[in-house]
Structures
1.
Amino acid sequence: MPQNITLAHWLTLHGLVMTTAILIYVISSHAMHQRRQPTAAIAWILFILLLPYLALPFFLLFGSRKVPRPRYGQAPTPPALDKEGHWAIDTIMALGQPAPAAYDDLQVHEDGHQARAALLRIIDQAQASIDICTFILGCDAFGEEVIDRLCDKLQTGVRVRLMLDGVGSLMDRPPHLKRLRQAGGAFALFAPPLRSGIRGHTNLRDHRKLLVADAGQPSARLWCGGRNLAANYFEGTPGQPPWRDLSFDLGGLLVQQASDLFNKDWAFAKGLPAPKQEAALPSCNTLAYQGHCAQLVASGPDQADDTLLALLVTAAYRAHHRILLASPYFVPDPSLLMALCLAARRGVEVDLLLPARSNHRLSDLVRGRALRSLTDAGARIWLAPTMMHGKLAIFDATLALAGSANLDNRSLQLNYELMLAFHNARDVQRFAEWFEAERQASKRHVAKQVGMTRDLFEGLLLWLGFQL
């Protein structure tokens, strides 16, 4: 009898825990407006039903996708434009992103040597301020050199702020940050694990990468792209070739948009009051849209929509001639995969550039399904012989998106990401030339049919590993 009573009590407690966990999931999802895919919602419910004692703390740590952040004024109203191609500008502004702003002297870096030279030159030439956001700062010769240059600038009175992601900082211990602080530099960790003030959002990482020098000054400069500040992204390490990657730098009014974004993220990471809304920048008028204007496109938990995912899907449906995509990882949302497959079927040339083997084996294992779908639709897949880390999306001569976002669910639905949208046809072509140079060194992928066991294995990994 005591055993029966104990069992009954245990079952009652188990049912109470399970019910509480499901209620927390439902209420928090509704209150936080967490719009999950059906497969992700089902995965969470099954996890809670099967293992409520593990699922509940796991959900509280990793379960949220969106973070309440203060809104900074009203979204700009898209201009009424009839010219072909301005759908991209209208879409970006409709998603709450800034209006186009002028830029000048765009430099697309051909390789890591150019990227390194540009980064160090911008640091050395800074006169007033340097703000850096990166996922990883390498504990290597390049990371040391960056810290050395920043300390030198601090000695001349330049303000330096460095922000690293809390998880990214654990992947490669930052070199001598104490020395930077002692020299007068400011440092912030974005959402460090177990110490984050973002409850329930430990899984949300700041993957944006930018350096802003002399914000608000005529000499303001932005360095941006997919490169982390570590040796393997630039010139490699002894015995290891550098990763192929994409970065660029530019000047002009557009730099202020990047500075505003950094200031918001810095305040959030430091727990400071939100910065006041900056005065609106002079936006490009209808005629200027034909010239050098671009837009900052931020995506992540601080945005009401999945900004980049929505933009990519829209662009795939609007493309007429070509779609060029580069990403180290390809685990796309079903809506994006469908849009790309339909584009290929209606005659759009769709080319996707990936590394033959990336640094994340799990991603390589599960990308097969999507690659087979694209190949069956008529798209071409290109595999780079070495690690290719660049992130680029080009649609016709209308739009080039370059920055930090990968073509997977983590980047497009979880991470804080940053892409720049270029609309000038000549500069779109410059990014296309970078793509073509990388494609020429790659081998075309031939999709192979797989058995039921492999297909089920890929599906299980997708469901469990990329939906939660």
Note: The first strand starts at residue 101 and ends at 102.
2.
Amino acid sequence: MNDILRFYSRRDVQKEILRITKDREVAVCFGDKFGKRPDIIQYGSDIEELAKQGATSFHISVERWRNPLDLKTGLTRRQLDNLRIGFDFLIDIDSKFLECSKITANLIVDALKFNSIKNISAKFSGGTGIHILVPFESFPDEVNGQRTMLLFPEIPKAIIEYIKNLIKPYLMEKVKNLSSLDDISKSTSISVKDLKINNEFNPFKIIEIDSQLISSRHLIRSAYSINEKTNLVSIPMDINHIEEFNPKKAKIGNIEIKHKFFSPEDSENGEAKFLLIQALDFAQKMARVEIKKFAQYEIPKIAIQEAYFPDCIKKLLDGVKQDGRKRAVFILISFLQHMGWNYDEIQDLLLKWNAKNYEPLKEGYIITQIKWFKSQQKKILPPNCDHESYYKSIGVKCFNCKCKNPVNQVKIRLGKIRK
């Protein structure tokens, strides 16, 4: 019996995974490939049987569903809303450096406590990241006259941006105390200049907490699930001692069931009301700033053709040659809608583009993302050019780029042509 099968055969491990997966969509990973979606786990013995078939990890939805097996590709937002019975607020911290992730997680926990949240869970991803979770039971039933349950993914996105804004100055100082900008630059291959915004170090250049990637049926690795890349287990952490965490505790042979990840029974209904109101107010202020910044840009009535696109978008349209296909979908849809392309045109282009990728995405994923953009009240801008998790990490960043956003590049280019 190998280590993975022996681990998933443990009754205490099965019990915890089964508890966490209740009412959630489950995706089972077999090495580097996922099994069918949607899937569920009904019994602890299912976990052992799947491990015998080669399962290496179990991934769960952030949303909770009335019947996860009713999920399918291409459902409208209203259909998803009718199936959803709740969602947990999750912050996914991703960095190349575990120490940076631990510092960030500690600050996030403090920020949540400051906003009156008591029921907070944390877990090690099994790599260099950390997940922070607040159960749906902590949120009020309604906010601003709307049912909280129907405000996904708007609520988690707003809270993440609010929390990032709260912790940024403290995170900036703590990371700089941990290592010099020169050393960070060498470790990440990001120039010191690119590590800054307005001459100030931006910690989110090396620590990713991206709210834009949150969408319906978003999955995370389940607690007590093995990370295939490191062979370490995604285990719960003591939120009061995050910075003391040692990944050696996550070795398959060292696992003890000590802390819970996700305990809805410990939530006080409405304890997250203050946090939610603050976050939504912050989102409204930011929306007003964005509208003011781009007030002069009007979406054209006739679609702008590819010849006028910036180089980063042209390169992206040639296909993704490495990791980053889902980020590319987000960039392309948000950019093309600002170029005056209608959603049918965007869908046709992306389905053809998908065949150029190193490994095509499922067509249903692209169609679902387009439907999500279509359902939004205002058109979302693509990520800014200096966003480290997008253009540069995908390998398409324009050389010597001086624009804030790809949409601005087109605006400037067309302005020159008109003159």
Note: Residues 82-218+261-279 form one domain.
3.
Amino acid sequence: METRPFQIRIPDSAIDDLRERLARTRWPDEINDENWSYGTSLRFIQDLTAHWQSAYDWRAEEARLNRLPQFTADIDGTKIHFVHARGEGPRPFPLIISHGWPGSFVEMAKIIPLLTHPEDPADAFDVVVPSLPGFGFSGRPTAPGCAPPAIADIWAKLMQGLGYNRYGAQGGDWGSGISTWLAYKHPEHVAGVHLNFMQGVFAPPPGHTPPPLTEAEQKYLASVADWRAREGGYFAIQSTKPQTLGYALTDSPTGLAAWIAEKFRTWTDCNGTIENAVDRNELLTNISVYWFSGNITSAARIYKENLANPFNFADGRRVIPPLGFARFPKEISHPPRSYAERVFDVQRWTDMPRGGHFAAMEQPVLLAEEIRAFFRPLRS
């Protein structure tokens, strides 16, 4: 596998175009909605986009991101962008971290140095953070089928190409499913998998009679169904008609910011104010990666691709490598341990004191400590 150094270099013309589009935003009306019950607050998005247009410094953020060692490689016909940060000490342990939607590799910027250069060098990792196909600065899939199982196979080839025969996997959101598929399909290489989000590991397929659910599992699945009914509109459209949505989000930076920012407010431990969990410039940098790459439509397609090959282990399959799970209090779902144990060999399960869906951005120190603790006995 040939790797090539990569640096982000957005043309001045693209930055000028962004500011001009923001200035020409055609604003919708709004019912007084300070609690965002109809969607993204008009006052909030006007403030955020005004900051994006006039005060936000993309060049400073670009330089910050370019301090991360970035590369690209062609795997299965797709260009994969990735960070490859080597750890200190004589034996750093390889770890591949996968992001989800509407995140990006930007999510991991603060946690990477905590893992590569910990207080005790014996805890150091070589950290690989790829941008999912169709996300960030990776290439876009040109045909259907790039679902999490296929991405897991790409990750296995990436790690092999980097010279890693045995490694750990970590992830949240779609990164949770990808990391799980990686551990399931390539257990001879994955020493362990650590997650901070869990997808539906026990959604029975049609005609399959599962073992009886415990009361806690029934409550959990009911809470997931309730959340999907209240908050799952984005999921429904991205799973069915992502292309239709893509025209608006690719053309309007204000629309893109509103679509993504609403998820950060709803899914973070922010008590209704995004900046309580995620710095405004960090949020805009994540949004800017979607804007400048033009990859919001291809990123949204992962939801539709997943429908063709859903994450479903209700038929008795098990993931062999051990699991560590960090359950953050403001995550969008809270599975009981017994639910995970139907599929995983659970060796560490921790209820975290604070944090939400974007754990690596919100609580990088806490998440790094959990990752180190889980993999410590698996390094040998």
Note: Residues 215-231 form the longest helix (17 residues).
4.
Amino acid sequence: MSNTEWIKPKEYKLNSESEIAELISDESVNRVIDPIEDISNDLFELNHPDCVDDLNRREQFCSEIEEQGVNYGKWFHYPWDGSLIRFPENDDYYSLRTFRNRNLITKDEQRALRNKKIAVFGLSVGSNVIDSTVQGGIGNEYIMFDPDRLSITNLNRVRAGMNHVGLLKTTVAGRKIAELDPYINQQHFSEGYNKLTDDILRKETPDVIVEETDNIEVKARIRRIAGELAIALVTVGDVDDTMVLDVERYDRNSKPFNGKISRKEFESLINSDSLSKKDKETMLIKMLGLRNLSPRLLDSGMARGVELTGFPQLGSTSAIGGAMASVAIRDIILDRKIDSGTRVENIRKVIKSQKPTTVLEDINILKRYIEYRSNHDK
């Protein structure tokens, strides 16, 4: 079952001003946004970069577009805010919004990146991946899976506002995609991963899978189907100020979780009814890498259920993780050499800043954590 809360923008090809008036009346349009002057000027510079200072040629070029009236381009009605917005035609718009990528990304590379399908599981950190990939011109179809609704506590790492709180995360992500590029196709699955998901992926065969779920069993099952379909998978874990990026090339016989857990442990996650909370926590620590977990993160973890709920995450790390994942996805699609493996980046080490805790504080936290694990292992 797909997300029935999501309503995609409605596309119109208009021929007269009277049709806009009809839409204002019939479709609850409360504002019309027509950036035709910006569109025509940007298209001139796209097509004639050697003549940007030739005012006569610019005026002639822009006039030919603007004289077409409302007939030029496509109009999209956004039902969630009542906007009716004019866009250039699909190809022109894509060329314009990726123009400043060139030639860091060539025309041929951008063409290859555009016509791809991306599946994304989990839309908290996953939303940061989508923000970066869509902005970078990667993908013309997104298949999104997440059962949760946006809460106020998500706002530290999801680019959204109070007007989005309570909406399905698939809806929040979908609106952002559509506002940037309404030509991108979207599929929303607001149940998250379930027994139908594998068949959906078999049918859709995405080019890359992004996995950002919280459920460790679901992580394993997504990797099982990625292996079956030989689809590359990318995941990013944000742990305090450290970002852990995993690339798993199931199109090149990668091991699940890059071999951080054994095959037996992987199979136990697939059939997880007998797994204890301790077993799951142990495997999650293996996946993230104990040395990547900061003392403050361990301290926060021990406070869950006492003074905190949920896993502590920082928006700054999520944003960097999203950017790094998007570069990995770009290179996978462009068939550059990017092997399976784990990449770890600590922001504080990069900027060479002072640690937030002293050595003594670190020792005391580690002692408490050892005691905490000992008590929970009984």
Note: The longest helix spans residues 315-333.
